[in-house]
Each structure stands twice: as C-alpha cells, then as structure tokens.
Amino acid sequence: MLRKLQFILQSSANLNTSSSKTTTLTSQQSYHHTSCLKLIFSLPGAGRCRLSKVGAGRRPPPARVRVAVRLRPFVDGTAGENDTPCVRGLDSCSLEIANWRNHQETLKYQFDAFYGERSSQQDIYAGSVQPILRHLLEGQNASVLAYGPTGAGKTHTMLGSPEQPGVIPRALMDLLQLTREEGAEGRPWALSVTMSYLEIYQEKVLDLLEPSSGDLVIREDCRGNILIPGLTQKPITSFADFERHFLPASRNRTVGATRLNQRSSRSHAVLLVKVDQRERLAPFRQREGKLYLIDLAGSEDNRRTGNKGLRLKESGAINSSLFVLGKVVDALNQGLPRVPYRDSKLTRLLQDSLGGSAHSILIANIAPERRFYLDTVSALNFAARSKEVINRPFTNESLQLHVLAPVKLSQKELLGPSEAKRARGSEEEEIGSPEPPAAPASASQKLSPLQKLSSMDPAMLERLLSLDRLLGSQGSQGTPLLSTPRRERMVLMKTVEEKDLEIERLKMKQKELEAKVLAQETADPKEKENYSPTMLRPLARRTVTVAKPLKKAVVMPLQLIQEQAASPNAEIHILKKKGRKRKLESLDASEPEEKAEDCWELQISPELLAHGRQKILDLLNEGSARDLRSLQRIGQKKAQLIVGWRELHGPFSQVEDLERVEGISGKQMESFLKANILGLAAGQRCGPS
C-alpha cells in the first residue's frame, strides 16, 4: 500500500513538471548485473565458470521475480539512414523510450538489469541466469523465461548459435559440471540429472522427446507441485547426452514463416531439468530441484504479420495464453483471492514460476525499430508489472527409509540373559572337566536357535528344523535360519505361542461338537442308521439353517370346479389349457414344421365382468371428482374432464363412452378397464359376506 501511495504522489508531481522532464514509472533498488566475467566454454566462442554451492539448510526469504531487458540490434536491411531507435539505455539498470502521447517527453523504466545492443550472450548468462543455478543444489526450483514480441530475439537468447550459445546450452554445461563435482565419491550427496522437453501448441501439451504420446494433462499433487504424467524423462550425465536428446527434439518444435520472421515459433517451449540428490549417510535425506527454461512464443499483430488460415489460428492461441499470463501477473500484484492459473495451459505450467516456489528470471526482449514501438511499450509494461510478483522458494526435502546391511551376531549375543547365564555355567563345567574334542559337525547338523524352543509343538518344531537344515545345505554357510537379535526372537516365540493357543481352542471345539453328535445318536436311536460316517466329522464354524416349509398346491377335480362355477354366487377363475403352434425349422425339409405348444389362459366369469362394468358406469355417472380419483389411472385432471363432459353431454351410456372424453385415448381407456373392473367386481361380491 505504501508503494502504491508513493507511485500516486510521484505521478501527480510529474504532471506539474515541464515537458522536457522524464516520467518515472517504477522505482526500486536496482540489481547490479555482473558483466565482463570471462568463461572458458567447450563450445566455440563460449566459456566455463565455477559455481559455488551456498550453505544448505537455510530457508531463503521471499524473493521477487527479477527482470532483465535485452535490446537487440537492428536487423540487417531494416535500418534506414534516418531510422533512429525508439529505445535508449541510460545505465546498466534503466532505459527510456519516447512517449507516444507527447514526443517531447520520455518514459523511464528501471529493472534489475539492462543489456544494450552490444551485449553478448555471455553477459546475459553470467549477469542474470548463472546466479540462480546454485539454488538447484539446495533442493529449490528456478525458472528462466524469455518474453517479448515476435521477432525480438527470444529464441536466440535461449538457444543461440554454435558460435554464440544461448542460455540453455550454457546453463546445462555448468549444471552438469557442478553435479559431477558435488556428487563425486566421498561427497555426502549423490546427484542425478534428468531432462524433459515439451511444447504448448494451441493449448495442447506435446512431448517433444516422444511426439507420438499425444496431448498430455497437467496435474497437481497433494503438496502443490505441478507435474505432467506420462512426460518423458531422459537421464543425462554429460553435455553429449544432453545434445543427443535435445537436438532431435528441437526439430520437432512447431515453427512457421510470417512477414516479420521466417522461423517464427508457433508454440511455447519448456525445457525441464530435474536435479535429484540423495544423502549417502544418515538421515538419508532426499532433495529435488527443478529448472524451467522457457521460450515463450511472441505476441503478434496479424495486420503486420499477414497471418491467414492455420497461422491465424496459431496466433490467436498464442495471444490468448499471453493475455492470461498478464491477468495472472495483475492478480498477484493486486492480491486477488483467485489467480487464474487454470485459464491457460501456459499459466498452469508456470504456477511455480509466478507467485510460486521458484527463483524466477524474466528476460524481456525488445526491438529498437519504431515500427515495433507499440509492441516494445507493451513488453516493457508487462516486465514492469512482473517484477512486483513475489515468490516464496523453499527446499524440497524429504527423508527416505534406508535399509541397513544385516549385522552378524555371535551365538552368545543371540541368547537372552537367562540363557547366556546357563551357557556360561556349561562352559565353566567343560573347563573344569576337559574332554576330547568332538568331530566338527557339518553345516546341515549345526544347531539352530529353534532347538531351544522346548515349549513348541514337536511337529511344528521338526518342520522348522528340517527347513533350517535344507537352507543350510543350499549355501547359507551354516548361518541359522533364525539367527536374529533377541527382540525379534521373542516376537517369534510369542507368535508361536498364540498359534498353539489357537490350535488348542480349535481342538476343544471339535471335541464339543463330537460330544453333541454322540448325544443326538443316543437320544434318537431310530435315526442312527441314517447317519453316514461323513456326518460324524464336525466342520469348523458351520452354520445349520432350517429350510422353510414349502407351499402346497391343492388340485381340485375339474367336475367340482365346473359345478362351483355354475353356482350364482361363485367367484372362481379357471385356468384352461390352450394349444399354440410354433414353427420349427427342419434341417432336411425346406418348409418349416409346425409344433403345437401348450400354454395356459385365464378365463374370468362373465357375470363378474358385467358387475364390474356396471359399478364403474355408476361411478362415472354419479360419482364426484373425489370419488373418481379413487379409481385406478384416474387423477385430478382426468376426474375434472369426466365431470365436465358429463355436465355437457349427460350421463354415460356405457363404459366405452369414456373414450369420447377429450384427453383420454383408446389405449388409456383399455388400461383403465383392466386396472379397475376386477377390483370393483371383487369388492362388490365380497361386500355382503
């Protein structure tokens, strides 16, 4: 809040000054970049440096994103005689650009470092990128982003050329050299390095090391770390290993030609280098540091690039992701509760780099030509907002369970206190009465600690001893099977005792079951012959279920049924057998054969149907809407329709007239009769009884 207040006061003061005075946009303590460091590099025109590892275990304070601006020189053939640059550097940290609203004023920007037209690749790497590599050996994350409009030199800054290698080859060369030195024999940590290479093309995450893997998903683990399942990881131990994987993968990146750039990057490229550390001694800690080297695609003005078709679609995806990137930066600066990381695959992947747990460096590339003026101002404004973002790096450290080598103890150390005392007493007796030495026993005849378990079941003890002798004969060099420390041996003995108790309990239960069976046999001697020998063997935990009595069907003579049906008060439904023909296809005959199949049909008394119809008709003519709702298939709406139709057309002459009511179809009328006629008739018959 204090910083915003100072900015407002300073801006209001600048409005009252003369037009020749420059306008200051931001003011912070500058980060003096280190230049003129000579490196000896294996590649032509490059050098090598030594990185020092800072003290581990210190948690660094919150660190903001550092921003460096690089001004590329004029491209050959674009600079005219009267073409002057629109950007001018003031010192190693600040620059100024003409104000497009008032050409007599200039806009002044201040960053952590500014590299002019004559700055080399080595100056940029040594001044901004090299200092953050040491954090990887502390188990912390770091990221380097190249940002800027199309044609500003982002890819050249990150990759470079064989004569002037960029940030990526220099960083990998130094990082591999440092890991070899820190992970050498005798050092406390063992280090390993892996690499992954991907691109974000039209909101699709593609693996450049394995292009056939398709679109990958971005996930977040329980600790908030961003990861990509299925992403290829290649272990590298030297710079030659890195080139063997990186150069073919770089040819898989999507590029295209526009009016401003013949090899314009059509996707965002991300090189992920992971450094794993394992401590060789206790407490066997693990550390993991990640280095993100990101070459962002440049924002494009389609009026100047002339994009059409696929190029226009690619440009839309690039501009959309960069727009979300700007929203993320604004949300972090304003302290909004929701940061739109998930609105784009790019920002989702950069969640650690912006507002996360990484030491981040943003290299903003700008062009000096006046035709790129608006793009340059936009890039500088984004860079000025980005350096206000605060990251909170921490050490990614965990403990691993390290398996210790087995310790060989003597037979005396394996014995308990009482057993050791008895052993010492036997030794004293042997010393007092010397005897001739016995012949040495073979490996299979050596005594085992199991022989001391006198309380064990003899059968189980014999099996364990035989297994011990078998293992000894197969090359165990006489080492007993259970040559374990006393604590583990006591646990084993306790387990054996519990098993013995379980066996005794089962034996007692078996005896109880056998006694019950014998008692049943003596109580019912008649059924003794029906028992088989297998029934005498009781089964453990067997539950006996009593079968429910089956329902009996009463079959009445057909004549009696016909007599009851002929009576006037009878209510009997008769099931009659009815033949039905079914066509069968014969294998030999051409015509299908017909075979009669028996089925049953329900026949209801005609008087019962007539009574049901009459009762429904009376209810339709005399019943109210409430009475009609008591019928099946009749609701409130249909009851009102029936009452209204009866008031207009008079009473129903037959039940089938219900079909004439508007809103009731013939099928509904038939289902209504089937649902109501039997129930009403049965209720009428059963009422007097």
UniProtKB/TrEMBL annotation:
For the region Disordered, what residue ranges are annotated? Answer: 415-449
Quote any Pfam family the record assigns: Kinesin
Q: Which residues form a coiled coil?
A: 496-523
The answer to whether UniProt assigns keyword Transmembrane to this entry is: no
Localization in the cell: Cytoplasm, Cytoskeleton
- Keyword presence, Plastid: no
Q: Principal place where this protein is found?
A: cytoplasm
Give the Kinesin motor domain ranges.
64-389
Residues annotated to bind ATP? G148, P149, T150, G151, A152, G153, K154, T155
Chain intervals with Low complexity compositional bias? 440-449
The superkingdom of the source organism is: Eukaryota
Keywords on this record? ATP-binding, Coiled coil, Cytoplasm, Cytoskeleton, Isopeptide bond, Microtubule, Motor protein, Nucleotide-binding, Phosphoprotein
Family per record: Belongs to the TRAFAC class myosin-kinesin ATPase superfamily. Kinesin family.
What role is this protein assigned?
Kinesin family member that is involved in spindle formation and the movements of chromosomes during mitosis and meiosis. Binds to microtubules and to DNA. Plays a role in congression of laterally attached chromosomes in NDC80-depleted cells.
Name of the protein in question:
Kinesin-like protein
Q: Which organism is it from?
A: Vicugna pacos (Alpaca)
